[in-house]
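Problem 12. The chain below contains 113 residues. Write out its predicted structure in token notation.
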Amino acid sequence: MTSKTVLRAMESELKKLVKKAETAKRKCDETMSAASEIIEVRKKAHEILSGDLSADEKLKLIEPLAKREKRAFTNSKRNLVKLMDAQHEAEIERDELMREISSYKYRMNLSAA
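Solution.
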């Protein structure tokens, strides 16, 4: 294998690890903010229901809030400790590969000189 092929393979794997770390962080963030999301949705729902709108108009405004609330409840049931562990592991893997790529590029530049 040529050094450029190895480097491309490493960079391809890095893209996967970056995406994995971002996904893990997003899941942690969603889980941590689930309670706030539920409170916010319920406040908006209360404002809508206590307003002077017709029943059909209220229903149209409440349906998206119900979906948000359901998603927030689902997120709140996730195991935050496991999600944080997964996030940490993904970030470590990503950072290690980034260091390895940097080191590999440095060695390539030395050998080319």
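Discussion. The radius of gyration is 23 Å. Students who got a different answer should revisit the alignment rule from Section 12.3.
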